[in-house]
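I hope you will forgive my troubling you with a question about protein structure. The matter concerns a single protein, recorded as an amino acid sequence and a row of backbone structure tokens. Please examine both parts with care and let me know of anything in them that strikes you as inconsistent. Thank you for your consideration; the sequence and its tokens are set out here:
***
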Amino acid sequence: MDEPRNGAALLRRGRGRRRRQPQPRGGSVLALPLRARKIRRHRRSAASRVAALRARALPSEAWDSKVEPAAGEREGSAERRETSRSAEPRPVPVRPRPASAAVPRRVEGRAALSRDPGTPVPLPGPHVDDPARPWDSPLQQVLAELNGIPSSRRRAARLFEWLLAPMPPDHFYRRLWEREAVLVRRQDPSYYEGLFSTADLDSMLRYEDVHFGQHLDAARYVDGRRETLNPPGRALPAAAWSLYRAGCSLRLLCPQAFSPTVWQFLAVLQEQFGSMAGSNVYLTPPNSQGFAPHYDDIEAFVLQLEGRKLWRVYRPRDPSEELALTSSPNFSQEDLGEPVLQTVLEPGDLLYFPRGFIHQAECQDGVHSLHLTLSTYQRNTWGDFLEAVLPLAVQAAVEENVEFRRGLPRDFMDYMGAQHSDSKDPRRTAFMEKVRVLVARLGHFAPVDAVADQRAKDFIHDSLPPVLTDREKALSVHGLPIRWEAGEPVNVGAQLTTETEVHMLQGGVARLVGEGGRLFLYYTVENSRVYHLEEPKCLEIDPQQADAMELLLRSYPEFVRVGDLPCDSVEDQLSLATMLYDKGLLLTKTPLVLN
């Protein structure tokens, strides 16, 4: 039987800144089994232990902070509409570039990009230390607020709330997600300041090993024809800016590999979506267009960073294009109907549209445009899940139920098939009823939990490495004072004890998966900021420690005393906790004390 079956048999599975509300002059906000058999070696289940932990949890520590909605949050009623011709910068699907993309390297003697999840490195260049940079922008304020929120899940929810503000996230998910195009008009040009800028792009071209076709595309759309004009080799400033002056839009693939702020932004939000969050940045010259009308296979959030851009968004042309699973070819203007939303995005505005919505955009009025497209939910559908479940369910049903092994009627070809589709033969009716009965029984054999674990494993591999808060650094292995001094390592000897209280580093950093009769803990802390540059990383977990590992995963963000882990011995308790702590997957309630 396949590994998912074996795995299933082995393991069950602050306050926002107050801002003046926009005036009503343009419309403000919204436009529109294998049945799992669980290892159970202890009387109390992991779920009951989690409940007990939460029931006796003490009041929040000093690190805790309440998250309150931004003042004055409300919905607007009308969308601002403007007219013009158009064409648009295309958000590339959620997966930035195949694994062929090399790790971005610093050049001119600079160090390579750090992969340490606790140490985001700012971009080099003179603009980085510019005192005029907007460190007091709403973005920087919310990032500072996130640093004081101890739970990664609450951080993800808060950042998404900020991204949509003043629209409530529950309204968005209930009424608009996967259904409608949405415009959030803020009239606050500083809202995204500090996320990414043309100065950041210029610095990357100078100090990073950026290559055309691999990290940067130059494209234009003229007279209904799309052109990609990537020269070979490195994207030096002279080449890139010359193409920009010639009317080409510049599309930066995977900016999170270069920008620590974009990395942090996406690393937090991926836990909100439960799906990989990717991004591209688009810089378009004045009075130009870079990409043809098309639709994508991702949920797209367009953040306008600089300048202005006219957008047109169209509903899917027919039901087959709704929530599309693949991106479309380029369309001509004659292929399109009337837009459902037409507007000019200005700095601070947000535009959302579901996969399958055709879109196009262009710069006008002698003003350039810089925007970031956040993309998620690529191939994350019920259909994708069932594609994995059903073959395994059939295989299990054939093995375990004799009804699935009985022979077909000898004469079924006399009344089944396209040539008999209009037949009223009662044998055909009986055959169809038998098929319906067997299909209904498949649900009993579907290894749903095992397939969910495999998809979770894939998500762990897709994910960006975590960016740590000050608290997470201080209370994890990254905060140990061990260092080299006077010819030898000093401050060595801090150890976990049975009295140490611990929890996982963050909520989404690890997943326990059964494969081939063994247990593996897949984790994100050693992932690369370049998509799938590294192979999946995992630790093998002893089956004797399965309950303890599950308790740690399910109890987050509550602390668990190492001595309360459901293991057979103190040695097993300490060995599991120490392995996780040393790997950077666990943090302690208080800093470890040197022995």
The chain has a mean pLDDT of 84. DSSP finds 14 helices and 19 strands in the chain. Residues 383-447 form a domain with the Arc Repressor Mutant, subunit A fold (CATH 1.10.10.1500). The first strand starts at residue 182 and ends at 184.
